[in-house]
Amino acid sequence: MSADAAPATTTAPAAFRVTPEAWKRLPRMEEYPASDGYIADVYENPEGSRMCSGFFELKHTDEPLVYDYEYDEMKVVLEGEFLLTNIDTGQAMVAKAKDAIFFPKGSRIAFSTPSYALAFYAGDRDATLL
Predict the structure, then answer these.
(1) Average pLDDT over residues 45-65
(2) Which residues are 83's β-sheet partners?
(3) Superfamily for 36-129?
(4) pLDDT value of residue 13
(5) Contact, 81 vs 95, CB < 8 A?
(6) pLDDT band, very low/low/confident/very high, at 61 (cuts 50, 70, 90)
(7) Which of 8, 20, 24, 107 is deepest in the core (most CB within 10 A)?
(8) What is the pTM of this model?
(9) Beta 51-59 vs 73-86: how paired, if at all?
């Protein structure tokens, strides 16, 4: 290294995070009063990331919860099962525990469940879009 060169600086990588029991006590989705859905981000754009992630819980009701995706999202079903219908295409599928789901931006999805379902999600979005 020459006398004129500045010493290299190093930045420590950000620490990883563990948030125990983040799926408990999720707030109700008040904007969907006919549905019994609960959702919360656990991590909102952490360390400047483009992603948000959290938990979505749904209990059986007669009306499905219809969600318009303004961003790409992936879900993994942890418990129960979701009955999923794309409002625009009519595509219908069942996603059960341990199934992975991808919803492309622009999808309008009707969520229902015969009894109960819990999922973890990660979305390519700003925290303000939930």
Answers:
(1) 95
(2) 94, 112
(3) Jelly Rolls (2.60.120.10)
(4) 84
(5) yes
(6) very high
(7) 107
(8) 0.87
(9) unpaired
Write the pLDDT tens digit of every residue in 78-125. 999 999 999 999 999 999 999 999 999 999 999 999 999 999 999 999
Neighbour tally for 128: CB within 10 Å: 8
Three-class secondary structure assignment of the chain: CCCCCCCCCCCCCCCCCCCCCCCCCCCECCCCCCCEEEEEEEEECHHHCCEEEEEEEEECCCCCEEEECCCCEEEEEEEEEEEEEECCCCCEEEEECCCEEEECCCCEEEEECCCEEEEEEEEECCHHHC
Distance of CA 39 to CAs 2, 8, 29, 99, Å? 56, 44, 7, 19
Of 69, 71, 66, 68, which is closest to residue 83 (Cα–Cα)? 66
